[in-house]
Specification:
Rossmann fold; alpha/beta; 16 helices; N-utilizing Substance Protein B Homolog, Chain A; 2 domains; 12 strands; eight-stranded mixed β-sheet
């Protein structure tokens, strides 16, 4: 075959191998796209992402046509080549000859996979002929959700909801934006709630109407909710901890708050500054560890670090590079930030704690533990009208809990609790 499309597939293979063999996040592997034409880069990213999104089901199809799994130390990237080929055939609907020929070319360039080229060729030809029938008979939601997540979600949300969450993860996330003001210019989109809209079509974000003029920014619908829970912040001081990439900082600044945005990573702090400059909004950006920051404000917002299992629609690598142990580690780090952030809340002030995780240990259990040891704080229950009438987003305790299956088209899985500190 010619080299047409092969650079894109080589990039996708490098990204996928980084995820599966080295547990390297998909986004960290996007440097493989440097130098590719825009169309090739888009195809490479889609191929790697969709392979990960449907990986469990694709692997099950491949196993129907293989005697046993391949050993990576012997086969090199052969397993990844097979997965990419199966994705092209069954998900992206690439012409069979193009997908199979490309897989053969990829194998030929790998010193180990080359020895499995006949197998790769034979298996993918069978997938091209019989794969659709095999795929249609599989439990795709279950297969593409690793055991460690399926068991947790079944226990926390019930088997039915766990399945619906798994189904939501089968689709890539749409692009949501938040408007800076009521008279902001915006691209073709659907109004969701408040200042949040959903784009009708994806594309180059920086070329869409209103972006260059700073009228809006990209932010998932669920991620826009925690800042709204602080209520009227006009003219008030707000400390935004773990602030990058800056969506919540911009929300608060646009509503007239005097925001101090605290971020530990220099590159991410710079991204906040860039976003503020583009949107012509003002906030103080402080480079610091949230656990060491000192100050006081009547409003404190914590978007704590977590396993981010609520964002799998946009990060399909997460189920395959993380495990149950990561939940424990993340929960411990987040609790330290919760303790530190609570000390910044002025008497009578409000604290909102949020995580983009579906795991109880990182959300509900954090707040339960915190309240049991901090009698000076009490829960300030969220009301349906504060989340635009969506009672199903509110837990029995009065906290926010969104799921990837909420809203037509989905939204991130988020947890947030609002607490008030006693005192005048």
């Amino acid at each position: 075959m010619t080299d047409t499309g092969l650079p894109a597939r080589r990039a996708a293979l490098a990204i996928l191998s980084g995820v599966l063999q080295k547990c390297r996040p998909l986004d960290a592997g996007l440097d493989q796209l440097a130098g590719l034409a825009v169309r090739d880069a888009g195809f490479a990213r889609a191929l790697a992402s969709e392979t990960l999104r449907h990986m469990g089901a694709l692997d099950a199809v491949l196993r129907k046509f293989m005697a046993k799994p391949l050993a990576p130390h012997k086969a090199g990237t052969a397993s990844e080549i097979l997965l990419l080929g199966a994705c092209e055939l069954l998900v992206l609907k690439v012409a069979p000859h193009a997908a199979v020929d490309a897989a053969n070319e990829l194998a030929a360039k790998d010193s180990k996979a080359v020895h499995f080229k006949p197998l790769i060729n034979a298996v993918l030809r069978k997938v091209a002929k019989e794969g659709e029938a095999v795929l249609s008979g599989l439990d795709r939601e279950r297969l593409s959700t690793p055991d460690w997540l399926w068991s947790r979600w079944t226990a926390q949300y019930g088997a039915g909801t766990a399945r619906i969450i798994g189904r939501a993860h089968q689709q890539a996330a749409p692009v949501d934006i938040v408007l800076k003001s009521q008279d902001a210019a915006f691209p073709p989109s659907e109004a969701l709630f408040g200042p949040v809209r959903r784009l009708n079509e994806a594309g180059r974000i920086d070329e869409l109407p209103g972006f260059a003029s700073g009228d809006w920014w990209v932010q998932d619908a669920a991620a826009a909710l925690p800042a709204l829970l602080l209520g009227d912040v006009a003219g008030q001081s707000v400390i935004d901890l773990c602030a990058a990439p800056g969506g919540k900082t911009m929300q608060l600044a646009a509503r007239g708050a005097n925001v101090t945005a605290v971020e530990i990573e220099p590159t991410r702090a710079e991204r906040i500054r860039d976003n503020l400059a583009r949107t012509k909004l003002s906030a103080e950006v402080v480079l610091a560890d949230a656990r060491d920051f000192e100050g006081s404000a009547p409003f404190v917002l914590i978007d704590a670090p977590c396993t981010a299992t609520g964002t799998i629609r946009r990060h399909p690598d997460l189920p395959w590079i993380k495990g149950a142990a990561d939940v424990t580690v993340s929960a411990g780090a987040a609790y330290e930030i919760l303790e530190s952030g609570a000390r910044l809340v002025a008497l009578g002030g409000i604290l909102v704690f949020a995580v983009c995780s579906l795991e109880r240990e990182e959300g509900e259990e954090q707040i339960a533990a915190f309240l049991s040891g901090h009698p000076e704080f009490s829960r300030l229950p969220i009301k349906a009208e504060e989340v635009f009438g969506h009672q199903d987003w509110i837990t029995p305790d009065g906290d926010l809990r969104t799921l990837p299956c909420h809203l037509p088209g989905g939204m991130d899985g988020f947890y947030a609790a609002r607490l008030r500190r006693s005192g005048a």
